[in-house]
Amino acid sequence: MRILFLAPTLPWPPDSGGRIRGYNLIRQLAGEHEIDLWVVGRSDSSPGDEGQLGRVVRELRTFQRSQIPGLRALSAPHQESWFHSAALEQALARTQPGEYDLIHLDELCLVRALPEDLPAPLVVHHHKLDRELAAATMSEGPRREVELERWLLLENLSVDRTPAHIFCSQDDAESFTSRHPRCRSAVVESGVDLDHFTPRMQTREGRHLLILGSLDYAPNTLGIEKFLGTCWADLRKHHTDLQLSIVGRGASSEDWKELPAGVELVGQVEDVRPWLARATALVVPLEVGGGTRLKLVEAASMGCPVVTTEIGASGLCFEGDEHDLRADSIRGLTAAILDALGSESARSRRALAAQTLVRGHYGWDRLASRMSSYWQSLAPPRHERT
């Protein structure tokens, strides 16, 4: 099949959840389908970034952002305004029927860029539920209510354009379809590069916790701040030598000036694997649902023990106490972490069970195959058309 893959940002370098998911799915799917990747330009991208994707897809086109028209801005959520591109809309308007077998829209915020008469069947891919994210991270008030209404209008429009929607988790799919019963959903979880995230034969440090994730993503930063404020002091009372490293892109020194004793802000690293290989456990302090959950499957693939909130593991086939240690809330992570630190054999047992699960079910090739099957159910291959 020939696919027009529309994304609001170039999925390279693979240094955040959305980019990692986007790149790996495209890389796998390009082995079976002809993919033209059209993206809105990013100010921090480089020609080298485009070269990486250009070697994977049939064609890569980048369109510059532009000012969204005034009246349209009144009903547009922030993301839609930010990624607006008049050049992209003009190119889409020139696309002819029969040119593509399917249009894959990689984020909800681009749905209004599509022409009224679609030249091919459409599927919308949700890396997260934008409305839920706005509800959980914005302060109460009129601005929040307006933004939620704008996202709901965009959801309604997307379901009017197509019933075909892909989600990262069953929870996300059920939440969306509860609002939009006409939606025909598919679930493609996030995976792991099994050749890259391989187990390493080295001794893990006895009391060194790791938090991993994009530090410019509100659910992560809110969760870390709450964890440090509610759990860290109690943990250090029990283990005065306990250390915590926070690793991820997008850290602002202004936002992380005063950290408690034992906590180190590492920021962005070229390779997270050495950190996963030596950490006593990965801690996932999330209380806002949705998103890719990549950090859990990457850690598990390398045999790194995981301590997480229930929401942090939502959408994955992990079972609490069998594959990881769970807490209902961030506050409850204190007891779960103390439990994890108390028994090396139990940590190793859970980590091995999680590693076996992930390496058997969460490889990108298997997940891309699921997406490919869904694509093909929506539009038959070109040679079968009359």
Secondary structure topology:
Elements: E1 2-7, H1 17-29, E2 34-40, H2 47-54, E3 59-63, H3 70-73, H4 78-82, H5 86-93, E4 102-105, E5 122-126, H6 130-137, H7 142-161, E6 164-167, H8 170-179, E7 184-187, E8 208-212, H9 218-230, H10 232-238, E9 243-247, E10 263-267, H11 273-278, E11 281-284, H12 294-301, E12 306-309, E13 325-327, H13 333-342, H14 344-361, H15 364-378
Parallel strand pairs: 1-2, 1-4, 2-3, 4-5, 5-6, 6-7, 8-9, 8-11, 9-10, 11-12, 12-13
Report the average pLDDT across residues: 93
Cα gyration radius (Å): 21 Å
* Strand coverage percent: 15-25%
Low-confidence segments, ≥5 residues, pLDDT <50? none
Q: What's the total helix number?
A: 15
What is the molecular shape? globular
Query: Any idea what the CATH superfamily of the largest domain is called?
Result: Glycogen Phosphorylase B
Q: Give helix % range.
A: 25-40%
* Terminal Cα span: 15 Å
Please, how many domains?
2
Q: Could you describe the largest sheet, including whether it forms a barrel?
A: 7 strands, parallel
Number of strands: 13
CATH architecture of the largest domain: 3-Layer(aba) Sandwich
Strand arrangement, major sheet: 3-2-1-4-5-6-7
